[in-house]
Amino acid sequence: MNSNKQILLSLFNESPGGYLSGQQIAEQLGCSRTAVWKQIQSLRDDGYEIEAIRNKGYRIADRPNGVKEYDIITGLETNCMGQNCYYFETAASTQKIAHELAQKGEPEGTLVLADQQQSGRGRMDRPWFSPKGTGIWMSLILRPRLLPSQTPQLTLLTAVAAAQAIEEVTGLTPSIKWPNDLMINDKKCTGILTELQAESDQVRYLIIGIGINVNQVKEDFPAELQALATSLRMSKQQEFPRAKLVQEILKRFEKLYELYLNQGFLPIKLLWESYSNTLGKMIQAKTMHGTIEGKAIGLTDEGVLVLEESNGTQHKIYSADIS
Amino acid sequence: MNSNKQILLSLFNESPGGYLSGQQIAEQLGCSRTAVWKQIQSLRDDGYEIEAIRNKGYRIADRPNGVKEYDIITGLETNCMGQNCYYFETAASTQKIAHELAQKGEPEGTLVLADQQQSGRGRMDRPWFSPKGTGIWMSLILRPRLLPSQTPQLTLLTAVAAAQAIEEVTGLTPSIKWPNDLMINDKKCTGILTELQAESDQVRYLIIGIGINVNQVKEDFPAELQALATSLRMSKQQEFPRAKLVQEILKRFEKLYELYLNQGFLPIKLLWESYSNTLGKMIQAKTMHGTIEGKAIGLTDEGVLVLEESNGTQHKIYSADIS
After folding, report:
1. Alpha-carbon torsion B132, B136, B141, B147, what sign?
2. Contact yes or no for A10/A74 (Cβ under 8 A)
3. A10 and A153 share a domain?
4. How far apart are CA A50 and CA B68, in angstroms?
5. Using CB atoms within 10 A as the burial measure, which of A89, A156, A323, B101 is most buried?
6. What CATH number is given to the structural domain containing A54?
């Protein structure tokens, strides 16, 4: 990360009216006016539109819709989540990179972002379509003291954080399809993949992957996905700033994660239920052991889905595809 | 692995009386008498004591107490477990190597063995003392379709398989201290470490590590371990063949694993209870959330330890150190 660039963006953020004189920048960065000019040029090269107005100074008129380190870290309102951030223009999969970083000991809250994934993955190694410049493809390293059996709760928690963030930034209200899909108008806009490495009775680390279709248009999706997937832009006829959305997710996630670690799953469960489009509906659950049909009547206190067959038999659903 | 060497050892194993003529060997291996002589020399270099008797042929009079690939695979009575075998004279940790192999896609049943570990690990990254030539330091890759919450059951299953194998080979009957230690005369002779990589609702792979103190004498242990640890040799004043013990563990494990996958945890639970030295006793359980004292009254059907305080309150113990 270019730290001068990041400091400069922070200065712009904090400046009243958004103007900074060359003199102010030179003083704050401790560099020459020529160096200031070079930094401004470098921001322009990154896609920032910067006005220079006589007697007022420089102002950022428009920002690129990027997710580079300094796009994320500048103005990020968290203590931990995302403060240690790795950005890749192209990655095979942010999950894979996050696993490698976690194995090397990178701390809780470490974030991996890519502008594009070449082999993005969803649950059960299904491919996740991750084209360049339009979505959020991110993975977060966590190191909670939990049992492996508790990790599905963090998938549900992440779904709530992502739904809240999307609501805040776009005004759209996604619904959550159990366990980990965010839907708008019955089409998928967000997927969540939670992976863990653990001893049998203790999590060593978790990687939570979040994929959000943000600014794709319909034609960006392969034909076979067009009936199933949507983007935030397609749902509201408007482009959205990706970095802002990542920041909002990290902020919401951090808050819910602290709540969860202090108070347990119950408050998360209530929030999840408020976004759920699964509860109360007749569903079909394809599990490892066969297919069951019935009504999704609720979550247990542990976060397991309870399905009731028409004859009254109740089943706990730990893992399934539902429809 | 030298496959000719392995074939030759198998021929000796299957030969009535244990004798093979140079002619027989040459025919079976499809090589010259000179090549036969070289193979015999190579076995002698590995520590095999081979008699050559006129008119009868060669006979293995004594075997080295090794755990090389062909020591394990020759005569191994399993379909899957250990048939794909990696041996290292020295390894940092067989668990670490097994993780790497699993990530590269090595199949279920793949076994990693080392004659010595430089940084052997037990639960919670505690060091595991693994000196050269005297113990069994092994890790097994499994790929069952299980929930992460079910993996502690496989730790219990492995403890039973190891106890059965030790009983069969040595005549000693170890007791199991919940969840994963095998004890003889209240000292630890075997530790088991189960690690997993998973999605939140599906195991991707498991690595089961088993460490057995086989042929150490008291002075082989560091002073601080002498009061806590024992070896099979120390318990019976006799050395034991390590490869035979590994083979017996793999055979017992495979049988129990098939039983478990077909019939669930109940039969494993009954076997585990028959070896347990924890049930019925007053214990102290140090968990993540504090220390509880009470009587270990049983396992749940899922394999979770149930502890009853003196006031009758029951606690499920998922993860703890007990004493």
Report:
1. negative
2. yes
3. no
4. 68
5. A156
6. 1.10.10.10
CB-CB contact of A301 with A269 (8 Å)? yes
B6 is in an annotated binding site: no
Take residue B273 and report the two structure tokens written for it: 């209870």
CATH number at residue A293: 2.30.30.100
Q: Are residues A103 and A35 both part of a single domain?
A: no
Neighbours of B244 (CB within 10 A): 18
On whether both B44 and B186 belong to a single domain, the answer is: no
Same structural domain for residues B33 and B105? no
pLDDT tens digit sequence for B41-73: 988 988 888 998 888 889 988 888 888 888 899
Residue A145 labelled as part of a binding site: no
Residues of the domain holding A186? 69-275
Q: Are B156 and B268 in contact (CB under 8 A)?
A: yes
CA distance B182 to B298: 18
Residue B249 has φ and ψ, to the nearest 5°, of: -60, -45
Q: Identify whether residues A271 and A290 lie together within a single domain.
A: no
**What tokens does A270 get?**
């209530």
CB contact under 8 A, B195 and A195: no
- Nearest beta carbon to residue B200 from set A145, A152, A197: A152
Number of domains in chain A: 3
Is A149 in contact with B145 (Cβ distance < 8 A)? no
Alpha carbons B82 and B94: distance in angstroms, whole number: 14
- Encoded tokens for A151: 């990790």
Question: Where is average pLDDT lowest: A6-10, A270-274, B56-60, B156-160?
Answer: A6-10
Whether residues B108 and B239 fall in one domain? yes
Give me the residue from B152, B199, B319 closest to A195, CB to CB. B199
- Residue B218, classed as helix, strand or coil, is helix
Q: Token pair of B181, please?
A: 């230690």
pLDDT tens, residue by residue, A52-78: 888 888 998 888 888 888 889 988 999
User: Do A67 and A44 touch, CB atoms closer than 8 A?
Assistant: no
Question: How many residues are recorded in chain B?
Answer: 323
A200·B124 Cβ contact <8 A? no
**Would you say B141 and B101 are in contact if contact means Cβ atoms under 8 Å apart?**
yes
Q: Could you tell me if the ipTM is greater than 0.90?
A: no
CA distances from A105 to A205, A237, A254, B125, B131 (A): 10, 42, 20, 13, 27
| Residue where one domain finishes, among candidates B62, B83, B101 | B62
Residue A123 is assigned to a ligand binding site: yes
Measured distance CA(B102)–CA(B206) in Å, rounded: 9
Query: What pLDDT, on a 0 to 100 scale, did the predictor assign at position B157?
Result: 97
Q: B265-289, pLDDT tens digit by residue?
A: 999 999 999 999 888 889 998 887 7
How is residue A172 annotated by DSSP?
-
